[in-house]
Amino acid sequence: METLSENACFGGVQGVYRHASSACQCDMTFGLFLPAEAKDGPVPVLWYLSGLTCTHENAMTKAGAQAWAAEQGIAVVFPDTSPRGEGVADHEDYDLGQGAGFYVNATQAPWAPHFKMWDYVAEELPGFLKENFPIDGDRQAITGHSMGGHGALTLAMNLPGRFRSVSAFAPISNPTRADWGRKQLSAYLGDDEAAWAKHDAALLMKEKGFDGPILIDTGANDQFIDLLRPEALASAIAERRQQATYRLQPGYDHSYFFVSTFMEDHITFHAEALYGD
Ligand SMILES: N[C@@H](CCC(=O)N[C@@H](CSC=O)C(=O)NCC(=O)O)C(=O)O
């Protein structure tokens, strides 16, 4: 592992690290905020999965998570959104290829050799963090924005028992029925839509739900709201009678001004689950 930077931040440390990923077959960079409490032993961790076009850096510098995480004594990890590098496939569109891994394991050419973001976030990075940092693997929660909200919800529902709580900011909610989804799922997973279902939060909600609390915020003025399809997830939540708070925030768009506005609520929400019994 290479330490790219470490900065004092709200009494803790905001670090950026690079390591060789066997899942993605390339070097991967991630951000990790450790609160002051991490000096004394393992702390709970909140995963923050970012959206299209992001690296580990966007949320780390724009979401305002560290102040609230420091208050709660929680670590926050900011993974990258895709494999990267010269030998890694890419596409001219901003929503496919590097910066747009969609948190799936690609099976199709030219993506399959490197685009294994599901394995990276679900398996490899958690193991790597546990080995190298004071992280309590029994107290994990997950959140994310847009494509990252999709990743957070699908990981939480597919890995029962892993996360105590899940939240999302403007998540892509029904990707099998929207252009933010169909394009990427067909490119990465192929045309058999049966393989897409485990990556659709609204379908997963109908099929299995989540054994814990959920908080979702979406801006009512989100410029991408038709691509996000919040109504599909909200109706699946209602149908299932899932424990959840789903808020449409008047006036807010899709930007990090929206994310940072509600970050305190989300971290407080996760802290209750992480410090509960
Ligand atoms: N390039 C497009 C849209 C890019 C965009 O808005 N990306 C969002 C996530 S969208 C869903 O996953 C984002 O987080 N951008 C990074 C940031 O720092 O704001 C366009 O420009 O319209």
UniProtKB/TrEMBL annotation:
Q: Name one Pfam family in it.
A: Esterase
Q: Which organism is it from?
A: Ruegeria profundi
GO cellular component terms given for this protein = cytosol
Q: Where is the active site?
A: S146 (charge relay system), D222 (charge relay system), H254 (charge relay system)
Q: What GO biological process terms are annotated to this protein in UniProt?
A: formaldehyde catabolic process
* Protein family according to the UniProt entry: Belongs to the esterase D family.
Highest taxon in the source lineage: Bacteria
What is the protein's given name? S-formylglutathione hydrolase
